[in-house]
Design brief:
The protein is mainly α. Helices cover about 45% and strands about 10% of the residues. It binds glutamic acid. The site of glutamic acid has 8 residues, from helix 8 and strand 8.
Length: about 550
């Protein structure tokens, strides 16, 4: 005998093409070895990728990689109004750029991979319908014909609130409609959503385990949440239960803003007869402002936008290594002990992921970047710099291609040694940092009080320039220093500074300022030889 609920389900889903049995056959359980985790990154294509998304994707990816499991990408495009064109393509390109390529995905313009497709929620509507039909047939869900109120953007949410507590049942006009009423509404062409018929009454508790936060107890769900919206697309809650189950997710890594929704998810999982899935609610990245800690904001913080790192020219390793640093406090001591290993060699358990909100610290981030750039070979550094210029600075890119050896040589000054110079943390700073290698300085770090001595040294130096080798170069500088009344022997100078105009280091500083504009620079002789004698003379002539 057919129950009323079964009759209602048939009426509502008469065009439904798939049965649960067919779906289960199409998506068999994954064959996993013990310990292997299946994780996913499931962004909504409603904007560009930000650091918060990346952090979460990075955790998911790392957990799967370390367990030898599967990491897949799912496009949660059920909010058609907020969908941004190409957002998913951009997200996928960024993931690839940072080598966190999913094992399974489906993205326009890229090859599709994986046996659990479609990985795009708007293409899975028949699947959701089949499960919604089952719930209606079992009396666990019902159609809701409440009219959308004119001008309200998010009506479904408002409905959820209004009918949220069991006491309000009598006020809910749709919860207990008869078959005849439903049929009349359907015939009249009234749009409807499918809502959960929650069994909660607000008194019960639910318990679950979060991998990071441990055992959590919460009030059970009592809301008749929307499962399928009137446009036929699922809500996040319903799609999460159906997709993560069918796609064989073993660990749901998602932002901790989803934690309050777990009781809703537990009820839906139970109603569908699904096994529960482990959760890892990741903390959100914060920023320090004075003594206060606040969440990184998409609107206020440039560090939140992944495009910032690409345009500023941070190597991809910096971002990935910094993610590791934020994810797990064991990473920094490991890095100190293993300065030359790749961050990919670092191993940790999901359990050890930092449970408190990590703080994004730009100085720390830059220090990590200096180390990473410092560890690059001259060729790696040069190639990474050239690639960055190609995307970000056409003029510079042309300059690099015209004089590759020259550029390689100056960015490599004082790098090719056991304790390399570590002063560059991104590629966009190179032009400014080494501006004297691209053209004459536009200002000189010299005080008015020293101007006369500075010019005297430069006037004299024109006769002493010798770049043939480092010893000859320095011997000539010493000879000139002596002739001008500067000390060449530092000990003698220290004992009796009054007897001299200064020491030979001062003379070198003046030459350095003339050539580079600065009091401090990498090795002066290397800079001068790279520029060549003509350019050095030209620069001195600009001053005296
Ligand atoms: N589409 C959801 C979001 O962007 C995914 C949450 C999850 O990972 O389950 O917040």
């Amino acid at each position: 005998m057919q129950t009323v609920e079964e009759k209602i389900a048939k009426l509502l889903f008469k065009d439904n093409k798939l049965t649960i049995a067919e779906i289960e056959k199409k998506y068999p359980k994954r064959k996993l070895k013990p310990g292997q985790e299946v994780t996913r990154f499931a962004p909504s294509p409603t904007g560009y990728m930000h650091l918060g998304n990346f952090f979460q994707a990075y955790i998911s990816y790392t957990v799967a990689r370390m367990s030898g499991g599967v990491f897949y990408l799912r496009n949660e495009d059920t909010d058609q109004k907020r969908k941004v064109e190409n957002a998913m393509e951009i997200i996928f390109s960024i993931m690839k750029q940072y080598d966190i390529t999913p094992n399974e995905y489906e993205v326009k313009g890229f090859e599709t991979k994986g046996a659990y497709a479609p990985y795009i929620q708007s293409e899975r509507t028949e699947i959701y319908k089949a499960y919604a039909k089952k719930l209606v047939a079992e009396g666990k869900a019902f159609p809701c014909f409440c009219k959308k109120t004119e001008g309200l953007e998010d009506v479904e949410k408002k409905r959820e609130k209004k009918f949220s507590v069991r006491d309000n049942t009598e006020k809910d006009p749709c919860r207990n409609l008869t078959y005849e009423q439903i049929e009349a509404n359907v015939k009249a062409g009234k749009p409807y959503s499918i809502r959960l018929k929650s069994k909660g009454n607000g008194d019960g508790r639910v318990e679950f385990e979060d991998v990071l936060k441990g055992k959590i107890e919460m009030e059970e769900n009592a809301k008749d949440v929307v499962l399928l919206k009137s446009d036929g697309l699922p809500t996040y809650h319903f799609a999460h239960a159906v997709d993560d189950t069918l796609m064989g997710t073993t660990l749901v890594v998602r932002g901790e803003e989803w934690l309050p929704s777990v009781p809703v998810h537990i009820e839906i999982f139970n109603d569908l007869g699904f096994d529960r899935i482990k959760y890892l609610h990741n903390p959100l990245i914060c920023k320090k402002e004075g003594n206060l800690k606040r969440k990184l904001s998409k609107r206020k913080d440039k560090e939140m936008d992944m495009r910032y790192y690409a345009s500023a020219g941070y190597p991809k390793e910096t971002i990935c290594e910094y993610m590791m640093f934020l994810i797990n406090s064991g990473f920094e001591p490991w890095r100190l002990k293993n300065p030359t290993l790749s961050y990919l060699d670092y191993k940790f358990e999901p359990l050890n992921i930092t449970a408190t909100s990590p703080v994004f610290d730009i100085d720390k981030f830059n220090d990590i970047s200096k180390e990473i750039i410092g560890r690059m070979s001259a060729d790696e550094f040069f190639e990474a710099y050239r690639n960055w210029a190609k995307e970000n600075d056409k003029q510079l890119y042309d300059f690099i291609n015209k004089k590759p050896e020259y550029v390689k040589a100056f960015i490599n000054i004082e790098r090719d040694k056991p304790q390399p110079r570590k002063d560059i943390f991104n590629f966009s700073m190179i032009h400014n940092y080494y501006n004297y290698m691209f053209g004459a300085p536009d200002k000189y770090e010299i005080d008015d009080a020293e101007r006369r001595k500075f010019e005297e040294v430069l006037r004299a130096y024109k006769k002493y320039i010798d770049l043939s080798d480092k010893t000859a170069w320095f011997d000539k500088i010493k000879e000139m220093a002596s002739a001008l009344g500067y000390a060449v022997d530092n000990k003698a100078y220290k004992q009796n500074p009054e007897a001299y105009k200064g020491n030979v280091a001062k003379v070198c500083e003046y030459i350095r300022i003339a050539v580079t504009g600065r009091r401090i620079s990498p090795d002066l002789y290397s800079i001068m030889t790279l520029l060549g004698e003509d350019k050095v003379r030209e620069r001195i002539s600009l001053i005296v």
